[in-house]
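Re: the 291-residue chain
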Amino acid sequence: MRKENFYVLFYKKSRLLKSGDGAIYMRISCNGTRVEYPTGKSIEPSLWSQNKEKAKGSSKKAIDLNNYIDDTEIKLFKLFQEMQADGTVVTARELYNRFFNIGPHKKVERMIIATFQEHNQECRALMGRDFELGTIKKYETITRLLQRYIKKKYDAEDLPLVSLDRDFVHGFELYLKIDRNQQQNTVARYMKGLKKITNRAIANEWITKDPFAGFKVKTVQTNPTFLSLEELHIIYRHHFDGVLEVVRDMFIMAAFTFVALTNVCLIINKLQTNNRSMGNGLETTCLHHFA
């Protein structure tokens, strides 16, 4: 790619890796300055075309490498244009720094968990007007599940919002089904909650691609069964330990009075306010067992 005296060159190192592949490097040249760095990508030597600066063939590895090259060229060219428009003296090092978001012009990246927590705080502030407690609790549960998923798969406390791509979405769905043993409709409810946040991120231009594009959130028809009066009496007479005693009482009350789940949560919240010794986990525990 060329724009005035701005060049980007991709090339394969002659010295091969232990795997037998050739490492792909990128060279940025601009206004008499130059920076080279390894892209972290590699390809079989026979599949690399230096004339085209692209991988040959239609293998997944070749396609991924070519997509990376295309995306990198577009991003660097955009950065170059932005710096020119701002009157900034463009150098290869400055382009490199801005491409990797390092140096004095580093932009603070939005993070996935932080974005969810910000959304949840807004919902809490609007509780009773725009949001019901049950809805808020759902998003707080999704946030906790995302934290555990990110920790398990990426060994991190949080990830940049731009990491929220199709692979992330698919991996989270598998985590809910396999690791958390969630049923399909519960998974669908959590995935729809995640999709709302990704739609918000797209609307605010925090991310540019929809990670749910082509991804269908499926629900299945269920035939719920109902407890008999005798079964309710068995639950009523059964002894539970700790907080489950309160869960049992709330469930029995809801079963006989037809009080909605959201109203049960409000009652629990009120009880917690008046009796701190009950612990902050009571409301969440009841919501989990009722759901």
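Confidence is low (pLDDT under 50) at residues 282-287.
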